[in-house]
């Protein structure tokens, strides 16, 4: 009996050891499995992305969906060109509207399932489908105006036409034609020449050539423009509304204006890249960036203007952003398809006549 008891005890002990061993293997296997389940979402976005965007947008999404976000940064044209490469691995791309329209026309984006992005319905109508129903919505709006140092000019700057003043010779920094604001400059030059650019492109370029004499440098990157202004090398620069806070931190006396002729609207749009293996996750991210939570957080930090109608800001909170339907409607809009159709011709002519040193 004692021998039998020892045999039973040995069997029970062996069973327990086997059970714990299997349990340990399962736990280890589960850990490995969970590690493998973490996906990577690659997002192509503007180089001006700061830590604040990571705090408000990327990090909360990473935690919520067990995903690692990798960023590809750069200006619109460079990132769009990279998207055209066959081995591109980007999942989502954020582009200014007329660059995004090129992506649509070239078949670079996946068609979205709007049912998976319910927050689209909370946007102001003009932002729901700026590129067509099959493609991504806008995720924010900005205005294109001017910023200047009031301590270094004889009279306040109030108009686009002030850029042509002789006192500003060599003191202006502007976007190059291939940067987001570049095409607006040609439209502004046409207005100052009293013509419609579609009808008299020559006069628009003649007027722009006059302005180029006042320009210290045409910038390929927004960061270059900010640096030359902050260093005092320029005293006037074209400016996007979301840059105001950053500029004023470096030059507190700087003043941003919407010229009396009107500021231009441009939207950032968010699209899913053709061929991604993470389409479902990408749609969740688009819905997240359009949410009331994210849109308000970005607005409170004066980084992006909210386009979700549910976002409510008081007068003080709304000072640094474009807020509300009335403010949005006040901005001038452009013919995106016409600009895209003209860009190759405009760029070639610009490099010969306006910025030949490029």
UniProtKB/TrEMBL annotation:
GO terms for molecular function: polyamine binding; thiamine binding; thiamine pyrophosphate binding. The keyword Signal applies. Pfam families: SBP_bac_6 (PF13343). InterPro entries: Sperm_putr-bd (IPR001188). SUPFAM superfamilies: Periplasmic binding protein-like II. One of its GO terms (cellular component) is outer membrane-bounded periplasmic space. This is Spermidine/putrescine-binding periplasmic protein. It comes from Gottschalkia purinilytica.
């Amino acid at each position: 009996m004692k021998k039998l008891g020892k045999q039973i005890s040995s069997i029970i002990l062996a069973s327990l050891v086997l059970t714990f061993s299997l349990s340990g293997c399962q736990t280890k296997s589960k850990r490995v499995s969970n590690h493998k389940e973490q996906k990577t979402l690659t997002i192509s976005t503007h180089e001006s992305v700061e830590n604040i965007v990571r705090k408000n947008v990327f990090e909360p999404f990473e935690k919520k969906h067990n995903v690692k976000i990798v960023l590809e940064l750069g200006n619109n044209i460079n990132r769009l060109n990279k998207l055209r490469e066959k081995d591109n691995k980007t999942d989502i791309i954020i582009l200014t509207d007329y660059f995004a329209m090129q992506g649509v026309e070239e078949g670079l984006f996946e068609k979205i399932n709007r049912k998976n992005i319910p927050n689209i319905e909370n946007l102001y109508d003009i932002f729901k489908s700026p590129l067509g129903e099959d493609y991504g919505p806008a995720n924010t709006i900005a205005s294109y105006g001017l910023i200047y140092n009031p301590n270094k000019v004889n009279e306040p700057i109030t108009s686009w036409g002030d850029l042509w003043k002789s006192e500003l010779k060599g003191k202006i920094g502007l976007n190059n034609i291939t940067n987001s604001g570049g095409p607006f400059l040609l439209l502004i030059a046409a207005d100052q020449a009293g013509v419609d650019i579609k009808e008299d492109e020559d006069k628009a370029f003649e007027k722009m050539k006059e302005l180029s004499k006042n320009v210290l440098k045409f910038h390929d990157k927004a960061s270059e423009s900010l640096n030359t202004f902050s260093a005092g090398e320029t005293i006037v620069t074209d400016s996007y509304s979301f840059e105001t806070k950053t500029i004023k931190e470096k030059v507190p006396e700087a003043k941003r204006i919407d010229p009396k002729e009107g500021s231009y609207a441009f939207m950032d749009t968010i699209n899913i890249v053709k061929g991604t293996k993470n389409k479902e996750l990408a749609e969740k991210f688009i819905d997240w960036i359009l949410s009331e939570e994210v849109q308000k957080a970005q607005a409170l930090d004066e980084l992006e203007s909210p386009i979700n109608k549910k976002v409510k800001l008081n007068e003080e909170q709304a000072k640094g952003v474009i807020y509300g339907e009335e403010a949005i409607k006040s901005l001038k809009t452009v013919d995106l398809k016409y600009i895209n159709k003209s860009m190759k011709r405009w760029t070639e002519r610009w490099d010969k006549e306006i910025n030949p040193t490029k």
